[in-house]
Design brief:
The chain is of the alpha+beta class. Among the domains are: about 65-180, Nuclear Transport Factor 2, Chain: A (Roll); about 195-310, Nuclear Transport Factor 2, Chain: A (Roll). It is about 25% helix and about 30% strand. It has helices at about 1-10, 20-55, 65-90, 215-225; strands at about 115-130, 135-145, 155-165, 170-180, 185, 195, 250-260, 275-285, 290-300, 305-310, 325. It has a 5-stranded antiparallel sheet, with helices on one face. A 4-stranded antiparallel sheet has the order 1-2-3-4, with helices on one face. A hairpin with a 7-residue loop joins β2 and β3 (about 155-165). It comes from Mycolicibacterium aromaticivorans JS19b1 = JCM 16368.
Length: about 325
């Protein structure tokens, strides 16, 4: 029996003939070739799609997801602001108004008269803090400007509220908390190296001429821009796009700083620019005093200085150290 078994074992390799070996080798090569063709076709499709996007200038759709995210935060934020405003102003007799945010058992007692007058509410922070199966938790911090009564000094507080969003809608999670702000901020010094003359007020409360071409141009601009005296076209360039706002009855410039000194006897070349920051005291059309600052760019054209734009903001010295602002007396802790 052992001999028969040995004979059968030795004859097994002979069953795989050379013909079958060639067939298997060629079949494996065919499979590899097919896989290579599939991979090449997939890469080609991706490449063609990319090139087509370049040629047709079809942008990647980022507006859709971004808009959806904004809509979601607006939806949650609007609900949170409404809940905060309601809880701060609703009385015991109006308790049912809070049912959209809390259950009756969540609130033990409410005042009999409105505790505060809410002037405005804005969202200071909104962020998703947790996500569970079918529900998300969002933290919303609402900045509230309020008064104890109508003529009282306004104060600002930050109220935190948590909101759950699910397929059932929105619901407040827990009650409000008053939290600290991130600090009183810090300042950087201005980056204007020269002080230009400012004309003394005349009998109409306007600046007298100084003889300095930049100072007088800025004075004329502020008066014709803020008050209805007219003549703004004399002080602005035609391509500035600036038109009069006429918000005040009187405008008096009190300070003017510039990035360079410009004297009456100087005549820089055409195209020279100078940036200034003008401080102006106004009497508004509602007879209210107010102080504003205007960062401006002036350009010398045909021997005359003109306002070419109202700058986005004053020039700051970015190389200087930040100066933290200490909280003022009576300011809420931050």
């Amino acid at each position: 029996m052992r001999k028969a078994h040995d004979t059968m074992s030795s004859s097994t390799p002979a069953l795989l003939t050379n013909t079958w070996r060639r067939r298997l080798d060629s079949g494996g090569s065919a499979v590899r070739n097919v896989l290579a063709v599939i991979a090449f076709a997939a890469c080609t499709i991706v490449a063609i799609n990319t090139i087509w996007g370049w040629l047709t200038d079809e942008p990647i759709d980022i507006d859709g997801p971004a808009r959806a995210a904004v809509n979601r935060t607006d939806y949650i934020g609007g609900y949170a602001v409404n809940c905060v405003r309601l809880l701060l102003t609703v009385t015991e007799a109006q308790r049912s108004a809070l049912n959209t945010c809390w259950a009756p058992d969540d609130l033990r007692s409410l005042p009999t008269t409105p505790p505060v007058v809410v002037d405005s509410t804005t969202i200071a922070k909104i962020v998703r803090t947790a996500a569970y199966d079918g529900v998300e938790q969002w933290q919303v911090v609402v900045r509230v400007n309020q008064r104890a009564y109508t003529s009282a000094t306004p104060e600002t507080t930050l109220r935190q509220i948590n909101v759950l969003i699910s397929s059932y809608g929105l619901r407040a999670s827990g009650l409000l908390a008053t939290i600290n702000d991130t600090g009183s901020g810090a300042t950087l010094p201005l980056n204007y190296s020269a002080s230009l003359p400012v004309g003394a007020p005349d009998d109409k409360g306007r600046n007298r001429p100084t003889g300095n071409p930049v100072s007088d141009t800025v004075t004329g601009f502020l008066n014709s821009y803020l008050t209805p005296v007219g003549g703004l076209e004399r002080y602005v360039s035609t391509d500035s796009g600036i038109t009069a706002v006429n918000t005040s009855q009187r405008a008096l410039m009190t300070a003017l700083v510039a990035t360079r000194m410009v004297d009456a006897g100087q005549q820089p070349p055409d195209g020279t620019t100078v940036q200034v920051l003008a401080t102006v005291n106004e009497l508004t059309n509602r007879y209210a005093p107010q102080t504003e600052q205007y960062p401006l760019t002036l350009t010398l054209r045909s021997g005359s200085w003109t306002i070419t734009r109202i700058d986005p903001g004053p020039l700051l010295n970015g190389d200087a150290q930040l100066t933290p602002v200490a909280p003022s007396p009576g300011q809420p802790a931050r």
